Amino acid sequence: MDHEADAHRTDLMTLTRHVLNEQSKHPESKGDFTILLSHIVLGCKFVCSAVNKAGLAKLIGLAGETNVQGEDQKKLDVLSNEVFVNALISSGRTCILVSEEDEKATFVDPSLRGRYCVVFDPLDGSSNIDCGVSIGTIFGIYMIKDKDNVTLDDVLLPGKDMVAAGYCMYGSSCMIVLSTGSGVNGFTLDPSLGEFILTHPDIKIPTKGKIYSVNEGNAKNWDGPTAEYVNKCKFPEDGSSPKSLRYVGSMVADVHRTLLYGGIFLYPGDKKSPTGKLRVLYEVFPMSFLMEQAGGQAFTGKQRKIHERSPIFLGSYDDVEEIKALYASEEAKA
Ligand code: AFP
């Protein structure tokens, strides 16, 4: 019998325990972040359960449709948004919420306000729901100084100013990947316990990878550096093997694979959509934060409106370095 392995299995590092451990390193901390996170975790568990039984519960369908009971059906992304907004407000630790689903930012009632601003996409990749492909929730957290004087500018900050970022992937297993600014850790939901357990401690992305991930269907509209980079992935000039192409079309799934296996994820701007597709605040910034914390890098635009989009190139350090060099030399020519 492997007693050591057994001891490991009986001394579970849950996400809450992990965050409490981190909190104890900051004696001035009052536990607000731990409380906020436990409400985010609750939202993730709810969405995970809803995604798992989506077909059964007839949750799939367009918002506004009516189900057999004559009740209004809610699309999963609408439902997920409501769950996260309610969980975040009721935590008593938030002051501004920016959700992909809501056109305007939510300013929390002063009586329930705390110091954190949360930007999030409650269910990213929703076009993949109906065919059972992995989807996810992405979030980023900022902290403000004065909760009694908040304005939208408090969330229109660079991604590097986030105090934490993460995502929850609803896939073959449900996983939260989180960084509070000192590395990246992955926690897998044990459905029998209802707890996220630390399964991927201190994730580090390989310095160089063998996979590139991009929607090649947009190739005819790409600019020079993106086209040249992808061409190099397929026809390397240095005698190395070509990279493999993997593209799910769910950012969380594509970034998760990139984080674990290495390589590069690209959603460039192109002639049709110069700012790309992905949203700066709740897709590009949180994923870039995680990549950098895992030792990779990200190369983004600098837009600053709540639903603004930006091109994004992120992944293994050396792979991103290559595409950055191509853009730098294009810029030098201009
Ligand atoms: P949906 O939420 O419409 O499915 O979009 C998903 C997403 O925002 C992101 O998760 C993917 O990386 C990206 O769009 C895929 O976009 P393309 O379909 O244009 O490749």
UniProtKB/TrEMBL annotation:
Q: What is this protein called?
A: Fructose-1,6-bisphosphatase, cytosolic
**Where do the Fructose-1-6-bisphosphatase class 1 C-terminal domain residues begin and end?**
205-327
The organism's taxonomy opens as: Eukaryota, Viridiplantae, Streptophyta, Embryophyta, Tracheophyta
Specify the superkingdom: Eukaryota
- Residue ranges constituting the Fructose-1-6-bisphosphatase class I N-terminal domain according to the UniProt record: 13-201
EC number(s) recorded for this UniProt protein:
3.1.3.11
Similarity section = Belongs to the FBPase class 1 family.
In its UniProt entry, the species of origin is given as Spirodela intermedia
A Gene Ontology annotation in the biological process aspect, one of them, is: gluconeogenesis
What does UniProt give as GO cellular component? cytosol
Task: List the catalysed reactions.
Answer: beta-D-fructose 1,6-bisphosphate + H2O = beta-D-fructose 6-phosphate + phosphate
Q: Keywords for this entry?
A: Carbohydrate metabolism, Cytoplasm, Hydrolase, Magnesium, Metal-binding
Metal-binding among the record's keywords? Answer: yes
Q: Which positions make up the signal peptide? A: none
Which Gene Ontology terms cover its molecular function?
fructose 1,6-bisphosphate 1-phosphatase activity; metal ion binding
| Group of enzyme by EC | hydrolase
Q: Where in the cell is it found?
A: Cytoplasm
Name the PROSITE patterns for this protein: FBPASE
Q: Which InterPro entries match?
A: FBPase_C_dom, FBPase_class-1, FBPase_N, FBPtase, Fructose_bisphosphatase_AS
As cofactor, the record names:
Mg(2+)
Chief place of localization: cytoplasm
